[in-house]
Structure formats: structure tokens, C-alpha cells
């Protein structure tokens, strides 16, 4: 056997056990492909290195912080490093592998984006109905329509306060709910626990004299409809967003 021929059992080659150095007589288009950044390295990270024959770089990915440098280097020069290692049967074999890794990476990114978008959609959907009820409740109070606001409250609140008692509570100047200039919710959450759907809205209330105070509106779902179960201002209002 010729001493210049390098014979190894390399899994990169398809149906072949003969490895030869990467040929240097490549054309301009091939050189551009080799020097192009790799989407596969960007999206697949460690998988890209092992699939491209860059075993050492793949192992480096297990080193904290240093792996960031290796990942970026793989994105920028991954194709070039893999080609220059010289363990490819020919350019077409190399190109086929790189394109396959790019396609897999694109599919994974699309799946991730769709999955993340679905999560955002469901979270937004779960909060839209209770947020609308809380806004309607606060708008009614701001407009002085206390009875309409009372109609939006839960049966539990009805059992603890009649419409007249609710009106007196809302007219208490210390709460600020009779002096609403504007309001806003910067924290929203909803959960279903043991078959009971509850939501919490918290933010701030601006009074007509310019003062601001914390605001909390708790809601509960009754017969498929969101109702206000509790409202508090000032020190009585929790502020989860600041925790």
C-alpha cells in the first residue's frame, strides 16, 4: 500500500473506509460555500460539531463560558474548520452534510418559534377575559356607575356586602375609588386550582388630586363568567410585580 494514502475507518464517509485530505482545487463557488456562516451551528450547537466531524470543538461545548466562544466560532467558521480538517470524501459529500444540518436547524427554529407563539397566545387568551372584567369594573367606578360595578362582583362579595353597603365602601375617600382619574395594571396572572379559576390584577391608581396609590383587583370565575371578588388600594393592595 502507498505510504501516502491514509486508510481509516471514518463514519463520515458514506460506504467508504478511505479518507483523503480535502482537495484544494476548489472553485470560487465552492470556496464561498465553505467560508459562509453556518445556520446549522447557530441552531444545533453541539450537535453540529459532532455531525461535522469537529469532535474536539464539540467536547469544548461542555466547558462553561468557553463554550460561548466555541459556539460563535462555529457559526462564523464552522464550515471552514470542518472542511480544512480534511476528512471528507469529496466536496459534494461535505456540502450535502452542511445543507442537511442547516435544514434541520431551520426546522427546529421554526418549531421553537411556533411553540413559543402558542404559549404566548394561550397565556394572552387566559388573561383577556378577566382583564376585560377588571377594566369594566374600574371604568364603572370612575364614571360613578357604582351599581354597574356592583353587578360585576362575585356572589361571595354579594353575600358579604349589599349594594348599598358596597356604595358606601366605594365612596370612602380613604380608598380613593371615588376619585379615580386613571388606573393601570402592570401585573396580571390567572390560574385554575382544584377546578377554581382565579385571577389577580395589580397596578396603580391615579387620583384626581394627582396622588397615586397601589391597586389590586382579584377575580373569580362563576358559571363561566369572570367576577370581581376583591378590590383594594393603598397598603391593603398587594404588588406581586415588585416581588
| Global Rg | 32 Å
Number of strand elements = 4
User: What does the main sheet amount to?
Assistant: 4 strands, antiparallel
How many domains in all?
A: 2
In round numbers, the mean pLDDT is 85
Describe the model.
This protein has 243 residues and is α+β, with helices and mostly antiparallel strands. The chain has two domains: 1-89, no CATH class; 126-242, Nuclear Transport Factor 2, Chain: A, CATH 3.10.450. It contains nine helices and four strands. Strands 1-2-3-4 form a four-stranded antiparallel sheet. A hairpin with a 4-residue loop joins strand 2 and strand 3 (212-222).
Short description:
The chain is α+β, with helices and mostly antiparallel strands and about 240 residues long.
What are the key terms here?
four-stranded antiparallel sheet; 243 residues; disordered N terminus; 9 helices; Nuclear Transport Factor 2, Chain: A; 4 strands; alpha+beta
